[in-house]
Amino acid sequence: MLIRKSSPLVIPYSEVTPKPVYLSRRSLLASLPTALLGATAALSSRPAYAAGRLGNLASSPLSTNEKPNSFKDVASYNNFYEFGTSKDQPVELAKNFKTNPWTLSIEGEVAKPRKLSLDEILKVAPIEERIYRHRCVEAWSIVVPWAGYSLSALLKQVEPTSKAKYVSFESYYDLKQMPEARNAGIPLPYVEGLRLDEAMHPLALLCVGMYGDPLPPQNGAPVRLIVPWKYGFKSIKSIVKIKLTAKQPASTWNITNAREYGFYSNVNPQVDHPRWTQANERRLGELRRRPTLMFNGYNEVASLYAGMDLKKEF
Ligand SMILES: Nc1nc2c(c(=O)[nH]1)N[C@H]1C(S)=C(S)[C@@H](COP(=O)(O)O)O[C@H]1N2
Ligand SMILES: [Mo]
């Protein structure tokens, strides 16, 4: 990323410590009598913060059992260049972002191209809660209870042709709603891509919510990608187009600076960013840095990269 205000290695203490006046949803809910939370939340083993408007989310065996960050951490420290390049801007500048109605187009090398409304997106597969680690390339990390389903469910519906080898994604872009995007310093609309087998991996999440509620605008409403074994910039927000292609698609940070950001961008503590180490990370809310794990700890994806030199194809 372009480092404008401060180096990623020195996140000011004020940015990682929730303000004392803030009552996180989780502690708020925890302080309510159980009866008020409703029978489902009280009876299921799901944590109270997940009892939101997306209904009774199934829990997922793909979840980590690490402790999620506070809602406040995840909803107010954001990377979303269309709404400003500093971490505190998106929560303010995306406040009135219009995310309904929404159309997601799926096209390219597919037998059954589709345009989905938000309602249709929500019905593709049962929405489950997936608690994932998220590792930003700027060496901070968070743990988030996302809500969604495997991207593979949607891709299977459109029936990729035998020519489809990659999947490209494009974000919504409109200067009227995103005036600060003029100062983003990256080409927009934001685009990303995955190899088809990466996109079909069950961990790749088509995400519509977090903490049991629909996504807040600053986190990529109404629909985004979450690829937990890759640096956070692969997890493209506010998606309007998915296109299956024969050739490797462009990705925004790779176009911006190919020396620093490769197409694969797998979390890899052995490949430093040219300007800082990737060997460790700062979990938001913690003071001591922790070691970064290969594939962000998601070793089940390793077989996707068998035979590749991940130092060259970084
Ligand atoms: N369209 C778009 N998607 C984006 C970005 C962005 O600037 N624009 N930033 C990426 C980066 S670098 C990260 S770390 C994550 C941050 O997601 P979060 O704010 O929900 O934590 O979104 C990714 N998706
Ligand atoms: Mo990031």
Task: Identify the notable features of this structure and list them briefly.
314 residues, eight-stranded mixed β-sheet, 9 helices, 16% helix, globular, binds the ligand Nc1nc2c(c(=O)[nH]1)N[C@H]1C(S)=C(S)[C@@H](COP(=O)(O)O)O[C@H]1N2, binds molybdenum atom
Taking Cα atoms only, what radius of gyration do you get, to the nearest Å?
A: 19 Å
Helix and strand string, N-terminal first? HHHEHHEEHEEHEEHEEEEHEE
Query: Which structural class do the helices and strands define?
Result: alpha+beta
Bound molecules: the ligand Nc1nc2c(c(=O)[nH]1)N[C@H]1C(S)=C(S)[C@@H](COP(=O)(O)O)O[C@H]1N2, molybdenum atom
Structure notes:
With 314 residues, the chain is of the alpha+beta class. The protein has 9 helices and 13 strands. It has helices at 13-16, 25-30, 39-43, 71-76, 89-93, 118-122, 151-158, 196-200, 252-256; strands at 58-59, 103-108, 114-117, 128-135, 140-150, 166-171, 191-195, 205-210, 213-214, 224-226, 239-245, 280-283, 290-291. Strands 1, 4, 5, 8, 9, 10, 12 and 13 form an 8-stranded mixed sheet that branches. A 5-stranded mixed sheet has the order 3-2-11-6-7. The longest helix is centred in the middle third of the chain and has 8 residues, at 151-158. It starts with 12 loop residues before the first helix and ends in a 23-residue tail after the last strand. Mean pLDDT is 88; it is low at 3-51. The structure holds the ligand Nc1nc2c(c(=O)[nH]1)N[C@H]1C(S)=C(S)[C@@H](COP(=O)(O)O)O[C@H]1N2 and molybdenum atom. Molybdenum atom (MO) binds at residues 79, 136-138, 232-233.
